[in-house]
Amino acid sequence: MNDFFQRLFDISKYDSLIERDRARMVYAITSFLLVLFTLYITLVPVGANTPATFVQEALAGDVVYIILMVGLYSLGIVAIWATRVGNTRLSTVSPVIMFFIGGVLNAVDGSFHNPADGVTLVLFVLLAGLLNRDRGLLVSSVVAIIVLAIGISFRANDPIRLDADDSIEDFFTIALEIIGAVGVTYLFLRFARLNRQEAMIRSGEERLLLAQITAQIAQRILGRAKLQDVLNGAVEQICSSYPSIYHAQIFLIDDIGKSAELVASTGEVGKMLIARHHTLTVGSQSVIGRVTATNSPMVARADSTSTVHRRNEFLPDTTVEAAFPLRIGPLVIGALDLQSTIVDTFREEDLPIFQALADNIAIAIDNARLFEEAEERVEENKRLVEQANTALRQVQRLNQRLTGRAWSDYVSDHREARGVNIDFSGNQMSTGMEWTRALSQTIQTNDLVQTQTDSGARVLAVPIRLRGQVIGAMEFELDGDNHLQPEQLELVQDVGELFSLSAENARLFEESQRNAQREAMVGEIAARIQSTNNVETMLSEAARGLKQTLKAERVAIRLGTPSAVRNAANGDEAPRNGE
After folding, report:
1. pLDDT on residue 422
2. CA separation for the pair 249, 237 (Å, rounded)
3. Is 222 within a domain?
């Protein structure tokens, strides 16, 4: 049955709360008029001289009554249909026309002999004003005065003649009643409009206050404030912005989702509670426990036995406590707890405002957490990069030392290949051992050096670098008037880099050849040794192989130890294993 009425009196076409309330009022007034009209046509006689009712007259074939009955019910159906489809103009006009036909015209027919007929006009004006506001009030008042005048004029045809003075007196009396109803209805509409404006202003102020608090919280996040500073600033801002709230605090659920710990609270009491690590279990019989478990706000009053409010020894003055879940989508991360000494602080219409505030605080908390996590990742990445750079520098230094040592050994072993001098003007080439001032300077500074000789020639010296290690230098003597361009200087340095790589490849190739020769010689000596089972022959082959490899003039090989040899010469037995 309830579902039937919900489908019949559907208000889903209306978006705002005011429009839905008006639709409900139209449904109620239309239904009430239909019920009254049904009772009237079935129970009340239509005239003083006949006991017949409205329905009986219609069933008897009176066309006027049939048209009136069908018209009234049709208007009621039209009013309900227009309200369902969202046609507000038709839905608010139809009940007024229903009442005009069913009540006002009946009073006209009675020539306003009965004082209740004047009340019908007053109700007509009130109904038109409530449903159609100022325009309906103006039109209905004009119609009521016209109908009143017509009804009074019908008294001339009444068999019971009335005095003209009485007619005029009745006209002005009912007219004043209509005017009074118009004035009262207008003032009522005006008062309702002012209340709506006041509610809108109050709602706008609360939204502005909410926006200001949210902006300040966001400003702290943009200012790279820590999460704890954001939480502390939020509760302090709430208490300063809402004078009726004397204590505010924030609980956050732990990682396993079992308990909610107090992380921010106002005043000295808040410091004491935080120092005690005040914690409430999620789902426990407490306001915070219920809110974090059900994901819905809760208002608990101290004087009510139906709430889960528990008196806090540190906050004995609390008369009402309201908690709102801090949620990120479907996930509840904590709760905003607000307490006041004023009983009606948290009204039903205030709850969406505070829930919106809690949602904004939850977003701020999530953003602050993400920001801190991002900063931690950045710091960790910086640390890893610094470690990698340090390791790379150590590897580079090790490579430089190894490169420098390898080339130092190579130069010591190949004295004939230390350098070369080429005189292209005289087409002469010679090995160079001496170091000029420019060559020495470019080796020490590891940079390009330009000098000038006494004869005016320009000397350009470039270091030869391999993996950052200077392994040599090149020197060019140029005409004094020959000024090299920057790109030419870069070309010279690039040539030096390429030369160092080529020289390193050549050195490594020679080293690999030496290693191969050494391994081949070791293999040959091993083959000679393993080709015989006689120890003396084996010693002889080993000595010959080492002579060829090392270019030795004399090779001596001994087996055993000096003490063992002396004991054998004296005829003593050699010591056994383990002795």
Report:
1. 78
2. 11
3. no
Please name which of 233, 381, 422, 249 lies closest in space to residue 326, comparing C-alpha atoms. 249
171's tokens: 């006209």
Q: Are 245 and 362 contained in the same domain?
A: yes
Q: Which two tokens stand for residue 57?
A: 């007259």
> What is the full DSSP assignment across 314-373?
TBTT-SEEEEEEEEETTEEEEEEEEEESSTTSS-GGGHHHHHHHHHHHHHHHHHHHHHHH
Encoded tokens for 551: 């270019």
Total Cβ atoms within 10 A of residue 418: 12
- Using alpha carbons, select from 531, 526, 516 the residue that is nearest to residue 546: 526
Half-sphere exposure of 138 (CA within 13 A, CB side): 2
Task: Give residue for tokens 């050195």.
Answer: 507
How does pLDDT run across 309-319, given as a tens digit for each residue? Answer: 556 667 777 88
Under the banding of pLDDT at 50, 70 and 90, the label for residue 203 is low
Query: Checking phi first, is residue 281 left (phi over 0); if not, alpha (psi -120 to 50) or beta?
Result: beta
Residue 250, pLDDT above cutoff 90 = yes
- The DSSP result for 380-418, as a single string, is HHHHHHHHHHHHHHHHHHHHHHHHHHHHHHHHHH-GGGS
- Same domain, yes or no, for 481 and 368? no
d(CA 426, CA 94): 123
Question: Are residues 449 and 429 in contact, defined by beta-carbon separation less than 8 angstroms?
Answer: no
Place of tokens 């070309």: 491
Average pLDDT, the chain: 77
Length of the chain: 579
Mean predicted confidence (pLDDT) in 568-572: 63
Residues 36 and 160 in one domain: yes
Q: What is the dihedral of CA 56, 61, 66, 68, to 10 degrees?
A: -80
Overall pTM > 0.70? no
Calpha distance 391→273 (Å, rounded): 49
The answer to whether the Cα torsion of 462, 465, 469, 471 is positive or negative is negative
Q: What confidence score (pLDDT) does residue 220 get?
A: 60
For residue 222, pLDDT beyond 60: no
Kindly compute the dihedral angle of the four CA atoms of residues 546, 548, 553, 558, in this order, to the nearest 10 degrees. Answer: 20
Indicate whether 163 and 234 sit together in one domain.
Answer: no
Element (H, E) at 220: helix 164-222
Q: What is the pLDDT of residues 152-171, one digit of tens each?
A: 676 655 555 444 445 565 65
Tracing tokens 């999530």 back to the chain, one arrives at 366
Nearest by Cα to 13 from 5, 4, 24: 24
Query: Does residue 169 sit in the same domain as residue 39?
Result: yes
Which DSSP letter does residue 154 get?
A: G
φ, ψ for residue 177, nearest 5 deg: -60, -40
Q: Which residue has the tokens 């009073």?
A: 107
Residue type, 16: S
Do 271 and 194 fall within a single domain? no
**Residue range(s) defining the domain that contains residue 491:** 416-516
